[in-house]
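Can't paste images in this forum, so I'm doing it all in text. The chain is below; anyone willing to post the predicted structure tokens underneath?
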Amino acid sequence: MGVWYASEGELGLIKLYDSEGQELTWGIMSATEEWMRPGPVMFQTTLKFNPGDSEKGVLVVYNNPGGGSGNEAGEEISFEIPVRFKP
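Text version of the structure:
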């Protein structure tokens, strides 16, 4: 997955989808500590949603590729995490 960079204390976007691919909610991952220091930094967000009848879904995490052009702009990266809403 590589190294992700925070921009103004935000690491990226999280979206939660149900098993039908419908977006349930989204959030921005924000730093919980000083983000301009060297080393790992913790990020968090709170998601409020209603899964309806869905038992499963997927959480998609997107980086913040930055703005600008050339060397200032990064590549958009995402990964998916399967989730279970109901046992």
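The first strand starts at residue 10 and ends at 18. The mean pLDDT is 82.
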